Amino acid sequence: HLSLDQVDPLESEISRPRAAVYGVTAAPMAFFDGGHAQAQGGDEAAAPAVFGEYRTTATALAGAAKDWKLTGAIRRTGDQARGEIVVDGPAAVGHVRLVVLLCEKLVMAPGANGLVLHRNVVRAAVSPPEGLRLTADAGQRRLPIEVRGADVSARLAEQLANTEKEKSIAFVMKPTYVDMNMCAVVAFVQDMGTRQVYAARVFEIPSQGATRP
After folding, report:
1. Phi and psi dihedrals of 44, rounded to 5?
2. Measured between alpha carbons, how far is residue 60 from residues 55, 57, 64, 79, 162 in Å?
3. What is the mean pLDDT of the segment spanning 138-162?
4. Which of 176, 182, 178, 177 is nearest to 207 (CA)?
5. DSSP annotation of 184
6. How far apart are CA 92 and CA 105, in angstroms?
7. pLDDT tens per residue across span 45-55
8. Model confidence at 101: pLDDT above 70
9. Is the dihedral of CA 93, 97, 98, 103 positive or negative?
10. Weakest-pLDDT range from 62-76, 137-151, 172-186
11. Residue 121's pLDDT is what?
12. DSSP per residue over 11-33, as a string?
């Protein structure tokens, strides 16, 4: 979600840094495997055709050989998720980084796209926006991660307040509350130079006190 032609209340702290990686200046825009950009949109009637093309592109890329693997586990205590992501792969050269994001599976708010219900919304960066640098040695790299829902909500509220002041507007709904029961951690290894994605995985956030890979 990006505030481009219209201000989008679902824009997060990571929206613009990630858009800059791809040089995005218009939305909607989809990228597959770090490239293969497809710019399509429309109303609900256009959805089957749009996602049909997305499926075709994704399927064509699915067989590409990958030398990287992501494993790990996430624990939950209250609104805090903690864990470790294990990156297994060759020697990291160039601009290879691990990017970790917090996504909420369903958010209700009137967005710039005209929809009210939004699925898999990126709410925050768990890693730095530019990603975590991987060691140059081949093999496993273990990287701890931690995110607290209340902290994310506070940052979203501050951002919305600043946007309202800057644009002299008032949002009807302010989607700042983050429900950790509806969240997952998304991680991917990407070469920031070529934008190629070497591995990606969704880590579900378990119920309180449990651990889930």
Report:
1. -60, -30
2. 8, 5, 9, 38, 42
3. 94
4. 182
5. E
6. 31
7. 777 888 888 88
8. yes
9. negative
10. 62-76
11. 96
12. --TTHHHHHHHHT--SSS-EEET
